[in-house]
């Protein structure tokens, strides 16, 4: 039996219950100027209670199958339907709105205008294309700003584009630390598409707020750039995997591009039953990775890209040495003596949870491993970070891996593989790893405004 709904008394609703308020106010009927009914004034405690109740309700609702959510919301609509006349009267009284007009609507996507794309240094060519192509395809003009550490690929790419594109449509500006803020605050730029560290991403968002620029932020926690407790992409390895195969791919996921990959594997959790064997196999696989000049045959691990990153990553090697963490691969942990920014890849065996190698994003060829026993607990550890970019899950049964993947708070999960991005699929960060998406069928809409045209009959 549905409860009786009265349209002359009003309450806050918190945790499924009608809640009164110490303080009340009332609206005015804009047609007559008459006072309307009492409305509650929420207290700070009401907000706290509502947020806590929403947090409790959110997880089971998020796990409810889509069809079931549809059916529940249909029931909601069915419960409202008997009161449509009451609502018509209510809306007229509180808002003065004339009701009922027939219309037909068409929704269009229109380009935003000028997009400034700000790039990091770890993939100078790939990032430039990833940003300028959808911006142009959606009908915008684009100005690329490469990282000062790696300006050359983007400068050359845009030079070549001049053979085909009209002047001004795709431009590139290299520069110093003043250039980024000039772009993010410029009143005639409509969107900032930014990839880089979370700390800089927050500055970009703040600057963009001045003119309400659209932003897409693809972020990672840059090493020692932020006071937030760090976090970084986890690998969860279940006990039933093919150890030799998985070990080699884990090593690849951690050390590809000298570990300078936003979705690179940065913390490896291995089930305790196979921990020691997997670690040995990883050490053997890592030893096969030749370090040296990227132009030489067989070289898999090149130098760090720049001196700043090299010095930061060296702090993690120094931490391992100072605290006598057990490490694998290479004869010692001593640092490079040559001119280039080379480091021997290292696997750090079970460092404490509060060590920098666990809490910071390394972006270098050094990776920690830790054992796990309880599945729920390891998922909790993987999620215990403000970051949420990617993760990998390794298990014999893909359905089992999927169950773990669905509980990870990240934008991309790779099952039984090291991270391998695909531009045709959406790529996005959860939590402080970003806002918006790149890649996939919806990525073009990120470079558009929506326009709805209403035709009245
Ligand atoms: P960064 O944040 O220092 O710099 C990124 C870009 O922002 C550079 O072009 C820089 O010149 C510019 N910039 C700096 N200050 C600015 C400001 N105040 N306003 C506007 N622009 C400003 O990052 P980085 O060190 O170049 O790149 C490495 C970081 O990027 C790593 O943390 C890595 O994980 C992350 N990254 C993330 C993704 C992702 O998709 N989430 C992809 C690649 C790299």
From TrEMBL:
Name used for this protein in its record: aldehyde dehydrogenase (NAD(+))
Enzyme nomenclature, EC number: 1.2.1.3
Superkingdom of source: Eukaryota
A single MF term (Gene Ontology): aldehyde dehydrogenase (NAD+) activity
Signal sequence bounds: none
Catalytic reaction(s) noted: an aldehyde + NAD(+) + H2O = a carboxylate + NADH + 2 H(+)
Top-level class of the enzyme under EC nomenclature: oxidoreductase
């Amino acid at each position: 039996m549905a409860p009786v709904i009265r349209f002359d008394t009003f309450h806050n609703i918190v945790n499924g219950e009608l809640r009164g308020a110490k303080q009340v106010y009332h609206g005015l009927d804009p047609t007559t100027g008459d006072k309307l009914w009492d409305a509650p004034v929420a207290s700070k405690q009401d907000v706290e209670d509502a947020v806590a109740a929403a947090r409790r309700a959110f997880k089971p609702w998020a796990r409810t199958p889509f069809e079931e959510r549809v059916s529940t919301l249909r029931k909601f609509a069915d419960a409202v339907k008997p009161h449509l006349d009451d609502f018509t009267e209510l809306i007229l009284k509180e808002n003065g709105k004339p009701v009922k007009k027939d219309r037909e609507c068409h929704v269009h996507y229109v380009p935003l205008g000028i997009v400034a794309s700000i790039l990091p240094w770890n993939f100078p060519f790939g990032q430039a294309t990833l940003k300028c192509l959808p911006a142009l395809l959606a009908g915008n003009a684009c100005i690329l700003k490469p990282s000062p550490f790696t300006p050359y690929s983007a400068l050359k790419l845009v030079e070549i584009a001049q053979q085909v594109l009209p002047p001004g449509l795709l431009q590139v500006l290299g520069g110093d630390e003043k250039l980024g803020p000039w772009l993010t605050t410029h009143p005639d730029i409509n969107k900032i598409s930014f990839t880089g560290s979370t700390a800089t991403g927050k500055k970009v968002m703040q600057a963009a707020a001045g003119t309400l620029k659209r932003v897409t932020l693809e972020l990672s926690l840059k090493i020692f750039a932020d006071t937030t407790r760090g976090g970084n992409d986890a690998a969860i390895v279940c006990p039933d995997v093919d150890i030799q195969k998985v070990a080699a791919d884990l090593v690849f996921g951690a050390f590809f591009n000298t570990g300078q990959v936003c979705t690179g594997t940065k913390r490896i959790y291995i089930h305790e039953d196979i921990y020691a064997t997997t670690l040995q196999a990883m050490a053997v696989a890592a030893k096969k990775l030749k370090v040296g000049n990227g132009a030489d045959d067989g070289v898999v691990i090149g130098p760090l890209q720049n001196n700043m990153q090299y010095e930061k990553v060296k702090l993690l090697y120094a931490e391992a040495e100072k605290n006598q963490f057990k490490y694998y691969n290479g004869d010692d942990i001593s640092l490079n003596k040559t001119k280039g920014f080379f480091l021997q890849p290292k696997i750090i065996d079970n460092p404490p949870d509060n060590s920098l190698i666990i809490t910071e994003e390394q972006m270098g060829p050094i990776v920690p491993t830790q054992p796990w026993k309880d599945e729920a607990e390891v998922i909790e550890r993987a999620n215990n970070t403000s970051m949420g970019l990617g993760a990998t899950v390794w298990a014999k049964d893909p359905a089992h891996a999927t169950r773990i993947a669905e509980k990870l708070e990240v934008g991309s999960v790779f099952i039984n593989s090291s991270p391998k991005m695909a531009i045709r699929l959406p790529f996005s960060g959860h939590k402080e790893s970003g806002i918006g998406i790149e890649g996939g069928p919806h990525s073009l809409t990120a470079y558009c405004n929506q326009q709805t045209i209403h035709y009245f009959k």
